[in-house]
Amino acid sequence: MEDDAPQEGVDIIRRVERAVVVGVQLPGRTGADVDASLDELAALLDTAGAQVVERVVQRRDAPDAATFLGGGKVAEIADLVAAVGADAVVFDDDLTPAQQRTLEERMHQKVLDRTIVILDIFAQHASSKEGKAQVELAQLTYLLPRLRGWGTALSRQAGGRAAGGVGIGGRGPGETQLEVDRRRIMRRISKLRRDLAGYGRIRDTKASERERNQVQVAALVGYTNAGKSSLLNALTGADVAVEDKLFATLDPTVRRLALDDGREIVITDTVGFIAKLPHGLVEAFTSTLEESTRADLLLHVVDASHAEAESQILAVKDVLQEIGADQRPEQLVLNKIDRADRATVDALARRLRTELDTEPVLVSAVTGEGLDELTERLELRLPSLRYRVSGHVPYARQDLVALAHRRGTVVKEGYDETGTTLVADVDHDAALELRHYLDDDPFAEEPEPWEAG
Ligand SMILES: Nc1nc2c(ncn2[C@@H]2O[C@H](COP(=O)(O)OP(=O)(O)OP(=O)(O)O)[C@@H](O)[C@H]2O)c(=O)[nH]1
Ligand SMILES: [Mg+2]
User: Measuring from each residue's beta carbon to the nearest atom of ligand 1, which residues come in under 6 Å?
Assistant: First the structure.
C-alpha cells in the first residue's frame, strides 16, 4: 500500500541559492566550449531557482579518479565557497557517487552535478501522472548508488513514504538503515517501471488508432528552448505554455493541422533535449520519446539566434540516435530568425546544406515569417500515397480508375460485368473521390474534410 502513496520529487536545488559552478577543460575541448557549457549550466540553475556566484575552470588531461579535480584545486574551491558564502558546488560533468562523496567531505559543502540539476527541473515541471512517475524513476535510479553518501535524510525525502516510514517495524533483524532504504527504493523503482509500462500501452493504442486511420504524424523535436511549443501554437492555434526557461514542456501535446492539399495531419510537441542529457532520464522518458520514433517526419527545431546552434543540432542528433529515431525523415527548421541577423542565419543554413546535406526552412514562430513555407514543406515531405484502398468502381466511373493510376499505385485490378475491382495506394484527394466505391470508408473516423477546412 505504502508504495502507492503520491510522491514528491527531491527538491535539492530549491534549497540551493548560491552556487559555485565548476567546469573541466579536457583535451579536445576549447576554453570557449567549456564557457558555453557553463553558461548553459547557469541557465539550468537559474531555471531551477539558484544563482551562480562564481565560476571555476580547470584544465586537465583526464578527470582525477577520486576527486575529479586536482587536490590543490579542491582546497582552493573549498576556500572560495566559504569566502563567497555559497551553499553548493555544482560540477558541469557527471560525478561518480564516490567522487561526489569525497568532494563533499573535502569541501564541507553540498556537491552536485549537472544531472541532478536537470532532474530537479524536471521534478519541478512535471505535471501529469506519467510525467511525475517518469521523473521519480529517474531520480531514484540516480539516487540508489548514492544512498551512502547522502545519508538517510535525502533518501527518505526521495523515496517519500516508501523510504520514510521505517520507524515502526520496517526494519528486519540485523538490517542496517541503509539496507532498508535501498530495499524500499528498489521496490518503488519496480512499481514505477510497471506503472510506466501501463502508460506506454495506452500510448501504443492511441498510436495504432492513428495508424489505422492513416493520419500522418510530424513530431517537433529539438534542443530545449528552441521554440517547439511556440511553433506548435503558431501552426495550430494551440495554447501550450511557452517560457524562456529550460524544459518548460514535459508532457506531450498532440494537435491536428490541415494542410493545403486537404490532408489533415497530427503534430506532436514533446520534451526538449540538451547536451549531456542524463541517461536515466532518457530511459525514464522512453515512452514519451517513442512518440518521435514513430513519427512520419521529425521537425527538428533549432534556435538560429543561439551562438551554439550547431552544437545543439549535433546534441539533438545524439539523443535521436539513442532513442532509435535517427533513421526517421527529418526536416530542420531554423527558428527565431527575427532575433538573429540575416547574414548569420544564411551562413548557418549554408553550412548545414554542405555539411549535413539538408535544406533547412527559415521561420519565426513569433512573427509568423516562413510558416507558409514550412507547411508547404510538410506537404512535400510527408509521403502522400498513404491510403491503401480497395473497392469496386462501376464502368460508368472508369475516370476514377484512371485517377487511381494517375495519382497512385494500383496494386491489383480485375473486371466483372459491372465494373472494376481495385486495390490501390492513393493520395488523400484520390481516396476522397473514390470514397463511395470503397469496401471500407478511409475517412470513417476523421471529421468531414470539407467541414474541417
Ligand atoms: N524572438 C523569438 N522568440 C521565440 C521564437 N520562438 C520561441 N521564442 C521564445 O523562446 C522561448 C522558448 O520557447 P518555447 O516555445 O517554450 O520553446 P520549447 O522548445 O518548447 O522549449 P522547452 O519546452 O522548454 O524545451 C520563449 O521565450 C519563446 O517566446 C521566435 O521565433 N522568435
Ligand atoms: Mg516546449
Answer: 222, 224-230, 242-244, 246-249, 272, 335-336, 338-339, 364-366
Distances in Å between the Cα of 216 and the Cα atoms of 35, 110, 181, 365, 399 are: 41, 49, 47, 22, 28
The protein residue with its alpha carbon nearest to ligand 1, atom 32, reads 336
Place of cell 533547412: 360
Q: Are residues 396 and 353 in the same domain?
A: no
Cell of residue 102, nine digits: 569525497
- The residues with which 421 forms a beta bridge, in sequence order, are 392, 414
Same domain? For 174 and 282 the reply is no
Residues 376 and 419 in one domain: no
Q: Tell me the ligand closest to 224's alpha carbon.
A: 1
pLDDT, tens digit, 9 for 90 and up, residues 429-448: 888 899 999 998 887 765 55
239 Cα–ligand 2 center, Å = 11
List the chain residues with pLDDT less than 70. 1-14, 149-175, 210-214, 445-453
Tell me the pTM: 0.80
Q: What is the CATH number of the domain that holds 272?
A: 3.40.50.300
User: Could you give the CA distance from residue 246 to residue 90 in angstroms, rounded to a whole number?
Assistant: 17
User: Given the CA of residue 339, which atom of ligand 1 is nearest to it?
Assistant: 1
Continuous H helices in 237-387: 279-284, 286-294, 309-322, 342-356, 371-381
Q: For 131-180, give the DSSP string.
A: HHHHHHHHHHHHHGGGHHHHHHHHHHHHHHHHHH--TTTTSPTT--HHHH
273 occurs within a structural domain: yes
The letter for the amino acid at 97 is P
Q: CA-to-CA distance for 149 and 113, rounded, in angstroms?
A: 14
